[in-house]
Amino acid sequence: MKADKNKLKELASLFLKLGSIAFGGPAAHIAMMQREVVVKKNWMSEQHFLDLIGATNLIPGPNSTEMAIHIGRERAGLKGLFVAGLCFIIPAVVITSFFAWLYKHYGKLPEIQPFIYGIKPAIIAIIIGAVYPLAKKALKTFENWMIGFISLALCFFGINEIIIMFGAGFFALLLVTIRGNKSLNSFVPLTLMLGSSLASVTNTKLFLTFLKMGSILYGSGYILFGILDSELVSQGLLTRQQLIDAIAVGQFTPGPVFSSVTFIGYQINGLSGALVSTIGIFLPSFLFVWLLNPIIPKLRKSKFFSSFLDAVNVASVAVIFFVCLQMGKESIIDWRTIVIAATSISVTFGFKKVNSVFLVIGGSIAGYLLTLI
What we know:
77% helix, 15 helices, 0% strand, single chain
């Protein structure tokens, strides 16, 4: 019993910390988790972590939040599932609520661009540090290399990441079938149908709207904003400027981008609106992971589905690498950001057990100081 409590405390400590410093979007968050859970704490193998990434990409909801929930479930069962997930979400929700209050009362957001300027190239280093060992583990065969290159190429053509990952999985199943395994089983993603639009400004409607979104949204949090535009802006419940400012808050606060929903809920219905919107958007993730987590080892033991999972893992690594390239193009733009990125990469590979928080804080401070030059 004491061991279980210690595991829960470890999970709470780790994910409260990550939820407070995890800037840069899902790829960066997962990179930080890999560094902490696999490299530093050795809670699971590189292969199993990679399997969890692949499984997470197959279900709706925010990927990094679902990875936190998976890790909690692996470490300390059902209680760990809730502790890890909530501790990762809560810091972002609290910080976002503060900015939502400022915005509603004063009509503007504080200027923190100099600090974000330095965080972004440091985040690139963290992602590179995580994706390198994951790629080594995923690219085990010639077929996997081929799937990886095709997946990366499709990313450059703008193909949806979910189509890429499912396509990779089914392509691997096709190869297995061609080799003589005829036991093709169907693999259906967990989704719920999109219902009607928000009819009135009530907390019940807010909850149901965001519950629906959390149940059907695949990929990154940025897809969320397109649906919010049609669900809320077009209905006159939110202005487009408020939506843009909500996106900005999601960018410069740590933790999941989906915490922007907290900001939006606050603008529509105050604190209670923020609360029910947040619960609605994240609740499906806990349910999906709870249902999926126990069957991942069974999939790995099956030669047939193991091929599917391996291919999805390879495609996931390709997508993360593509995201890293895109972030690099946007973030490493002058000699200052080159210096921050190069230094962060050197620390990441030279001192593998250095905590990610030091890279984030160091990049932030360096960015601020270098902008003064």
